[in-house]
Design goal:
Helix content is about 40%, strand content about 15%. The chain is α/β, with parallel strands linked by helices and about 375 residues long. Bound molecules: beta-D-galactopyranose (GAL). The site of beta-D-galactopyranose (GAL) has 11 residues, from loops.
Length: about 375
């Protein structure tokens, strides 16, 4: 635990720089609250490896702080998640850590949490449209999109004036607040090259609402890519795909390979991703997916666990951003971590030396 705290402190920068707010709007001068209670954790899905890592890490960090943890996965179904959170409130948990499935579906249940004075931490995805969310812990989500776009710009040589190249855009789930941050971050850098025609989107699908992928589902992305390939690329080839998440990248890659990309004179396009999921890192090593954005979920979990402990023991949780994330009702005090761009050239240094994966896991 000492190591984790030290790591967090390093990332946070000087403690004196950290902004602080009082927990849940309550005075922090009151007596210490419940250390050693039970924390309810609501995660979106077991179908994606990253959320399994999040769940495991949050539970073990809470246990290390002396708490019990109740971890539930909502099978990517908003109604299931609402009833799971309702159940946790009825069981009398002392705090909730929630990664929402649909960021607007939780207003009612969070009202119940507020009535029961249960503090709520919005985990990775901001919960929208409710005053009843106390803190947000995530990564710099626009930076994720900027890393993806920067990779495409560098690999295509756009700054050197090369082109024109064909690109297609994919975005995340429309009900996830992160989706527009990733997309805006990327488009901010790509737009000038679309404007000057060094980049061309042959499908004509350019607006966020045309390119989202409900629930970040890989097969849904595969289907959309198939449609695009048959409608717009019978005589052309795709040079780059902006993909916001590894599960989507794997779906897009399947469609491309079935269309003959990756063999003969049809190289695979540059394709980005996010989360450094095992299948995608293996794909990067094989030379298929090009890049991913690594977010050290151990640090994210650590910040969430520490916030809970601070709130429940009457301390003021550390935050490092009080402006970036407004949920429509309030600006939610946030702690944002920094992501890292990863490709074949640095995965060993970042992911293996960093202890996220072992060499054996990546080579099996
Ligand atoms: C987002 C998250 C991404 C990715 C995606 C799909 O909310 O920030 O890292 O995991 O969900 O699960």
């Amino acid at each position: 635990m000492r190591n984790r705290r030290a790591a967090l402190a390093t990332i946070a920068g000087a403690a004196s720089l950290a902004l602080t707010l009082s927990a849940c709007g309550e005075s922090t001068t009151g007596s210490a609250k419940k250390a050693g209670g039970t924390i309810g954790i609501a995660m979106p899905t077991e179908a994606s490896e990253r959320w399994l890592t999040d769940g495991k890490s949050v539970v073990s960090d809470l246990k290390a702080e002396g708490y019990q943890a109740k971890l539930l996965y909502g099978e990517d179904d908003p109604k299931t998640q609402v009833s799971q959170i309702e159940g946790l409130i009825k069981e009398g948990v002392d705090a909730l850590i929630i990664a929402a499935i649909d960021n607007r579906s939780l207003n009612g249940v969070l009202q119940q949490a507020a009535a029961a004075k249960i503090p709520v931490i919005s985990y990775d995805r901001l919960i929208l449209g409710t005053p009843n969310v106390d803190y947000y812990v995530s990564f710099d989500n626009e930076q994720v999109g900027r890393f993806q776009a920067r990779y495409i710009i560098d690999k295509l040589g756009l700054e050197k004036g090369k082109g024109p190249f064909n690109i297609e855009l994919f975005a995340g789930s429309p009900d996830d607040n992160n989706t527009k941050y990733f997309f805006d971050g990327a488009m901010h850098l790509l737009q000038p090259y679309l404007d000057n025609k060094q980049l061309v989107i042959r499908s004509g699908q350019t607006a966020l609402k045309q390119v989202t992928t409900l629930r970040w589902d890989g097969p849904t992305a595969k289907k959309r890519m198939e449609g695009i390939l048959s409608a717009s690329y019978s005589t052309k080839t795709v040079d780059a795909v902006l993909s916001p998440y590894d599960g989507i990248s794997i779906g897009v890659l399947k469609a491309l390979k079935e269309d003959g990309y990756g063999s003969g004179n049809k190289p695979l396009p540059i394709i980005t991703g996010q989360d450094a999921e095992l299948a995608s890192v293996k794909s990067i090593i094989k030379g298929e997916q090009s890049q991913t954005v690594y977010k050290d979920l151990r640090l994210l979990a650590g910040v969430a666990a520490e916030m809970v402990d601070d709130i429940l023991t009457g301390k003021t949780p550390k935050i490092n951003n009080r402006r970036a994330y407004n949920n429509g009702v309030k600006t939610v005090p946030s702690y944002l971590l920094q992501p890292t761009t990863v490709d074949k050239s640095n995965y060993e240094y970042v992911l293996v030396a960093g202890g996220y994966y072992t060499d054996a896991e990546l080579k099996s």
